[in-house]
Design brief:
This protein has about 250 residues and is an alpha/beta fold. Helices cover about 40% and strands about 15% of the residues. It has a single domain, classed as Rossmann fold (3-Layer(aba) Sandwich).
């Protein structure tokens, strides 16, 4: 095996929503393999835990504040990101609005689609321009089990994450000849703040766990290996893939 298959030294990775959870785990993992880190988050502050983790590894860290529910803020941060040299993009940031279909409001629909679908689309477009100029780039979208399944009481999230799978495949076809690889990771049931409501519901959590062949929910760190792989030279001949990291959930 080539020794540099997973070496990201000299690369810069933009990981949205890296302040906590899956984004934090991925950003730290990429830094451990040599990448400098940029993040965009609505609540990031100087001296954040992710900044300390990245700089402790001797990597550079930079952050921008943006509420992805706000189109004006997203467009503004995209203009700034166009000026950055970014080799790896991980579209991680997102939100869930939980309500039954009949009670799901237009406001909930609009802000979920804006944050979970439109913002990643706009950020990818902004960052891709300079990737194409260099004929190199790795783009990773974070999908969901609901990229494949319907879910319950998360209709706007399901719609957005299903679209993310299509966006991944569509963009990958166009950018493959230009040197940019585009893939997605579909996390299973992971213990994060976004899933706290479900995990704290003992009956629902038990029902979900019973369908996971590995017998337990995942941790944010369980996504790190897949993200490193899809960011690194090891995956140079892979594009258009939506990779489940779900403990076997979809296979059961």
């Amino acid at each position: 095996m080539t020794s540099n298959f997973f070496d990201l030294t000299g690369k810069t990775a933009l990981v949205t929503g890296a302040r906590t959870g899956i984004g934090f785990a991925i950003a730290r993992g990429l830094a451990e393999h040599g990448a400098d880190i940029i993040t965009v988050s609505s609540a990031i502050e100087p001296g954040s835990e992710i900044e300390l983790a990245v700089t402790a590894l001797g990597r550079k860290f930079k952050s921008y504040k943006c509420d992805f529910k706000n189109r004006e803020q997203t467009v503004d941060v995209c203009k700034k990101l166009e000026e950055e040299r970014i080799d790896i993009l991980v579209n991680n940031s997102g939100l869930v609005n939980r309500a039954s279909f009949l009670e799901h409001s237009e406001k909930q629909w609009d802000e979920t689609i804006e944050a979970d679908l439109t913002a990643p689309y706009l950020i990818t477009k902004a960052v891709t321009k300079q990737m194409v100029e260099r004929k190199y780039g790795k783009i990773i979208f974070i999908g969901s089990m609901w990229s494949f399944l319907g879910g319950q009481n998360v209709i706007s999230y399901t719609a957005a994450k299903t679209a993310i799978a299509g966006l991944t495949r569509g963009i990958s076809n166009e950018l493959a000849p230009l040197g940019v690889r585009v893939n997605a990771i579909a996390p299973g049931f992971i213990k994060t703040d976004i899933n706290k409501v479900v995990h704290n519901d003992a009956d629902r959590a038990a029902a979900i766990t019973s369908r996971i062949p590995m017998g337990h929910w995942g941790q944010p760190s369980d996504l790190t290996g897949a993200a490193i792989f899809l960011s690194a030279p090891a995956s140079d001949y892979i594009t258009g893939v939506v990779l489940p990291v779900d403990g076997g959930f979809l296979a059961n």
